[in-house]
Predict the structure of LacI family transcriptional regulator.
Amino acid sequence: MTVKEIAKLANVSPATVSNVLNHRNNVGEETRQRILEICKENGYDINKGKNKKPAEDTNTILFNFSDYERNFYLKIIHGISDYVYSRGYDLMICTNKSCEKFMDPALTCGTIMLDMKCKNSTLIQKANEGYPIVALDRIMDVPNIKSVVVNNYAPMAELVQGLVDKGYRRFGYIAGIDTLDNQERYRALKDVLQKNGITFSRENYFLGDYYEKSGYQSARLMLLSDNIPEVLVCANDNMAIGAMKALRQEGLKIPDDIAVTGFDGTEMSELMGLTTVDIPDYERGYLAAQFLLQNIAGSCSFDTFKIAAKVHWRKTTR
């Protein structure tokens, strides 16, 4: 028996069931008793959190992310902290090694997740226990989980179509790790090229890990070919910057000999004149915190929210 199934039997939203199971006082007594009776009749253990401090007495939000190197995390944290502090909440930050420990209603009242190393099964388990979650890195159709993700496809399609319109025909791609972000960005690249009758060679697909070093190494591998691409599309700014360093070391001029694009809109991309897609990460964090507090209060819709991003043309493309 899950929270969603209990909600269906009680003819209420999953958030209402979550509020009852987490001892929140924003549910009418008649509805509360009906939900508790359904739980009892169906063998649902309503005492899972009996010895824990109720979430409503915990005023701390948890933000879990995967590493400390990618600069955009700082903007997201800034947005989260501005919102939660203005609402009287505290903020705790951790990485995947300790996230399960802190996703506990005795310690935190909800989590913003940006770490694909945290398994879906863990999030589903926590959500089914009534623990509020906002996921920034995946789409999940689960009660108590609100997905807030970047609309990667549309701006990448706009970027690639713009490159085609500028006359580029031979494309290379440096991918990130296999996340929803990378999947959507690569799919947009392939779809736009196919639409324009342009063949993409798998020989020009290079696997990176979102770090600058992997962009540098991928570009070095690409340069071993006799027929390098006219434009190198990178799944993020860090890898694009690494690739630019490798290209310039070999005496290639950007964009005269080869164009380069990124994705993220980091401060370094602006300093280096990199054509990229700018993700509003401060606003991303702010909205995530806003949705999480709505989730905690039981007033959140669990429909996926997609954040728009914009293409910025700069001097690494002609």
